[in-house]
Automatic annotation (TrEMBL), chain A:
This is Xanthine dehydrogenase family protein molybdopterin-binding subunit. It comes from Pyxidicoccus fallax. InterPro entries: Ald_Oxase/Xan_DH_a/b, AldOxase/xan_DH_MoCoBD1, AldOxase/xan_DH_MoCoBD2, AldOxase/xan_DH_Mopterin-bd_sf, N-heterocyclic_Hydroxylase, OxRdtase_Mopterin-bd_su_IorB. PANTHER family: ALDEHYDE DEHYDROGENASE, BLL3820 PROTEIN. SUPFAM superfamilies: Molybdenum cofactor-binding domain (SSF56003). GO terms for molecular function: oxidoreductase activity. Residues 204-284 form the Aldehyde oxidase/xanthine dehydrogenase a/b hammerhead domain.
From TrEMBL, chain B:
The keyword Iron-sulfur applies. It holds the Pfam family Fer2. This is (2Fe-2S)-binding protein. GO terms for molecular function: 2 iron, 2 sulfur cluster binding; metal ion binding; oxidoreductase activity. The keyword Lipid metabolism does not apply. It comes from Pyxidicoccus fallax. Residues 1-77 form the 2Fe-2S ferredoxin-type domain. Keywords: 2Fe-2S, Iron, Iron-sulfur, Metal-binding, Oxidoreductase. Transmembrane segments: none annotated.
Length: 735, 155
């Protein structure tokens, strides 16, 4: 299977096949309950998903994109199984606004539930259709035919192939919802650790990333960023820079200031000169204590859960606590990059955006071009973990390309641009109060959270692109909204999964954002699960109960209980006393309360003098429904756990009233090799169950497990992330 | 300024401003992809290459100063017949990487380590790679891949 980087933009004309003889009944089964899966309902034509060529190549088209999570491999496995072809026959087209079905954003752990389920049904329908055609061709009932790697054989041995039946023609037929996918036992690829299709080229140094894009007309653009949020450009001497070696053009459009040069190094130097001559008007408007600021803001309040307790027995005690998470950054290792080219008619944009369809539309609107004149193509970038600078870099490149026709303009953000200008994960405050029984179990649970937005992706609106907002006639940023049920955003996972008799959950949403914020892996679930699971640990401690038992006795969901038990067992959880300075903790959540179940146990040691926390080992158990690629899933869960350890131990964006101060890896340190613990991941496979999506499942549980382990080791409860030695020392003093 | 650089066993004459870091010469003049831009200030290791067998951060050293050196990028790691280096095989065997943007730098840092210390302990590997950053959390797989390659090379 291959994922071609260099695809032609022109669609090859394909012959159309008439299926006049076959109505939907030809396939014989009852329609699928609940109708077609969502993505397939939106794009019901089978040729939106699949092409079968005369030379035996099967092209699978998906709107979801590879972010390093292995989605293309997993989708290929599903397709190969349902269509009955060898995996090696597959070619993937992903995230191409001309060729792929628009499946929205690749985010929210939705790729397997959405695209995976759609591909499964589309391939099953295509297979049934091919069998029907073969039946007519061979004069045999379709039900008596066998398929192996596209070779259809009738009982007497006569055969025909997919390629001869389909070659050059298009599957122009709508999905009917009447074909059932194969039962689990008949699958060859699903459930197996098929190696990732994208890794060999990356390990061999082939050009796979958008950063590696080359063309004869390639030139390099560099944007001079405002030094602080909300700064406006007062004056700049562009003439000085226009004469520098290699400089092709200086572009100033309002507060948007950039230079294009023949070589990247010359562009970097020219941009530095431009920055020297630029004078900006800055504001001193950033709230240095963002948590205090959050509590003072006008809020949009929503009670998202309100179940009064059926009995009115008085609670024995009331306990409360407040937790906080800081601004944190996605921090891709490769800063954002894009390449755009305008040929006077069509603008082509190569980007590692997670939302290539929406971002392409926003770019078209920003440049006032018809949407069909902007072609967005996803090319892989460095792992992004949410909405980072990718879309803004695409808009930068588009704006510059539009100003310099006939050249492919590559815009590579600097490390400093990415650190200072990417939208961060929102700071949050979480308060929880519980009335508990004699035994310490929760009777009434009252939870409130304060948060800024977790979703300011372009969504087709140029006001959500830095370039769009900076132009002389700027596009206004739309007022951000919180996401609603069932997935939620700021309040994702704010409703506990525990069977508490009385429960109330209130969201205080603050639409303002002094520093730009947007979606970062798990959105509000990172803060909410940290708070809920830390508080559960506090309650268990107050009740004199074991933290694992305490959770289990208030949890009814059988799959939730199973992952907690699995994690505890693999970890060797025991009540035996820990050596001094050592502790263990557990954290659990079902991501979004509807995706993967995940429990994490960690063991830490805390240095009595320096207060430095060292994570000695971690165990994670997950139930992601039917597992498509166990190795890919383990890789992603372990990666999420390690990233959450990094967030939770070290990371907070630093800034003062005027500027962001975290501008490189020394001012925003992340976890390094010698700090990464061994991680053991256990999967509970559920063949036949829906795919649940797991890419973000570990973020919240890991943070809580860590804080709980630190408490177990030291008796110090840290309710503010990250758990730095200074925090530990400060929390210890307060008691 | 015009000078000659020896990269992956071949001499190249390049003409670039004197202060051009090696990274940009490799990527823009020689069309090589192995060295990645990550930070440009020597903090992340994405741009790591070998200079006379030891690791070098190509983003911070002007190419013009490296005239006499044998430089190796990821493209030069494989055998002359194109066969993957044992490290490359091991990274694939362990499926070490998610986005894999950091992986070229990891491979080159590992190659430098194994040249100096053919059988490093796990702790030595972690220390040697401590300034090579990975954001995806692929660290443990990378360590296992290096151990696997070391064992393979020792055979
Ligand atoms: S790019 Fe050279 S060390 Fe980061
Ligand atoms: S694998 Fe993505 S940064 Fe290392």
């Amino acid at each position: 299977m291959s994922t071609p980087v260099d695809r032609r933009t022109v669609l090859k004309g394909s012959l159309v096949l008439a299926f006049s003889l076959m109505g939907p009944h030809a396939l014989g089964a009852a329609p699928r309950p609940g109708g077609l899966p969502r993505s397939l309902r939106a794009h019901p034509r089978l040729d939106a998903w699949l092409e079968i060529s005369a030379d035996g190549v099967v092209t699978l088209k998906t709107g979801k994109v590879e972010l390093g999570q292995g989605v293309l491999t997993a989708l290929g496995q599903i397709c190969a199984d349902e269509l009955d072809v060898d995996f090696s026959r597959l070619t993937l087209v992903s995230g191409d606004t001309v060729r792929s079905p628009d499946e929205g954003t690749t985010a929210g752990s939705m790729s397997m539930p959405e695209s995976g389920t759609a591909v499964r049904h589309a391939a099953a329908e295509a297979r049934a259709l091919l069998l029907e055609m073969a039946g007519q061709h061979l004069g045999v009932k379709a039900s008596r035919l066998r398929v192996k790697d596209g070779l259809i054989t009738a009982p007497g041995g006569r055969s025909v192939t997919y390629w001869s039946l389909m070659g050059g023609k298009s599957l122009n037929r709508e999905a009917t919802g009447t074909v059932s996918p194969k039962p689990p036992g008949e699958r060859r690829y699903i459930g197996r650790p098929v190696p990732r299709v994208d890794l060999p080229a990356k390990v061999m140094g082939e050009p796979v990333f958008v950063q590696d894009f080359r063309s004869d007309t390639l030139v390099h653009g560099r944007v001079v960023r405002a030094p602080s949020p909300g700064a406006s450009l007062v004056e700049v001497d562009t003439a000085r820079v226009e004469g520098l070696p290699g400089v092709l053009k200086v572009v100033r459009d309002g507060d948007f200031l950039a230079v294009i040069a023949t070589r990247e190094w010359l562009a970097i130097k020219a941009a530095a000169s431009l920055a020297e001559t630029a004078r900006w008007r800055e504001q001193e408007a950033l709230p240095v204590d963002v948590h205090a600021w959050l509590l003072e803001q006008p809020t949009q309040d929503t009670v998202i859960e309100d179940t009064p307790r059926p009995t009115d027995e008085a609670s024995a005690r009331t306990v409360e606590a407040r937790y906080r998470r800081p601004y944190q950054m996605h921090g891709a290792i490769g800063p954002s990059c894009a390449v755009a080219e305008w040929d006077g008619d069509v603008l082509t944009v190569h980007s590692h955006s997670q939302s290539i369809f929406d971002t392409t539309e926003a770019i078209a609107r920003m440049l006032r071009l018809p949407t069909d004149k902007v072609h967005g193509r996803h090319l892989q970038g460095s792992g992004c973990y949410g909405h980072n600078g990718a879309d803004d870099a695409a808009a930068d490149a588009a704006l510059l390309a539009h100003a310099l026709p006939g050249r492919a303009v590559r815009v590579q953000w600097s490390r400093e641009d990415e650190h200072a200008c990417e939208p961060y994960g929102s700071a949050m405050v979480m308060k929880v109060r519980a009335g508990v029984s004699d035994r310490g179990d929760v009777l009434d649970w009252d939870y409130e959270l304060w948060s800024m937005p977790h979703g300011t992706r372009p969504g087709g609106n140029p006001g959500n692109l830095l370039a769009g907002r900076s132009r002389a006639s700027p596009f206004r940023m739309p007022v951000p909204r919180n996401g609603g049920p069932p997935s939620y955003a700021a309040d994702r996972n704010a409703i506990p999964l525990y069977a508490f008799p009385g429960r109330k959950v209130t969201t205080h949403f603050v639409p303002r954002m002094p520093l730009r914020v947007s979606s970062m892996r798990a959105l509000g679930a990172y803060g909410n699960v940290f708070a809920i699971e830390s508080f559960m640990d506090e309650l268990a401690h107050a009740a004199g109960a074991d933290p694992v038992d305490f959770r289990l006795r208030q949890l009814q969901d059988a799959r939730a209980r199973a992952v907690i038990l699995k994690a505890a067992e693999r970890f060797g959880w025991s009540p035996a006393p820990r050596p001094p300075g050592r502790g263990r903790g557990i954290g659990f959540a079902r991501y979004k309360n509807l995706a993967s179940y995940c429990a994490v146990c960690v063991e830490v040691s805390v240095d009595p003098k320096t207060r430095a926390v060292r994570v000695l080992r971690a165990v994670l158990a997950a139930d992601a429904g039917e597992v498509v690629n166990p190795d890919g899933l383990v890789n992603q869960l372990e990666g999420g756990l390690i990233q959450s350890l990094s967030w939770s131990l070290k990371e907070a964006v630093r800034y003062d009233a005027r500027r962001v101060l975290s501008r490189d890896w020394s001012t925003y340190p992340i976890l390094t090799f010698s700090e990464v613990p061994p991680v053991d991941v256990a999967l509970i496979d559920r063949p036949g169950e829906p795919f649940l999506g797991a890419g973000e499942a570990a973020q919240g549980p890991t943070a809580a497990a860590l804080a709980n382990a630190v408490f177990d080791a030291t008796g110090v409860r840290v309710r503010d992330l990250p758990l730095t030695p200074e925090r530990l020392a400060a929390s210890g003093k307060q008691g | 300024m015009s000078f000659t650089l020896k990269v992956n066993g071949r001499a190249h004459t390049v003409d670039v401003p004197e202060d051009t870091p090696l990274l940009y010469v490799l990527r823009d003049e020689l069309g090589l992809n192995g060295a990645k831009y990550g930070c440009g200030v020597g903090q992340c290791g994405a741009c790591t290459v070998l200079s006379n067998g030891t690791s070098l951060r190509s983003c911070v050293v002007p190419a013009a100063r490296l005239g006499g050196r044998e430089l190796t990028t990821l493209e030069g790691l494989r055998a002359p017949d194109g066969a993957p280096h044992p490290l490359q095989k091991a990274f694939l065997a362990e499926q070490a990487g998610q986005c894999a943007y950091c992986i070229p730098g990891m491979l080159m840092a590992a190659a430098a380590l194994l040249r100096e210390k053919p059988r490093p302990s796990e702790a030595e590997i972690r220390t040697a790679l401590d300034a090579n950053l990975c954001r995806c959390g692929s660290h443990n797989r990378i360590v296992r891949a290096i151990q696997r390659a070391a064992a393979e090379l020792a055979k």
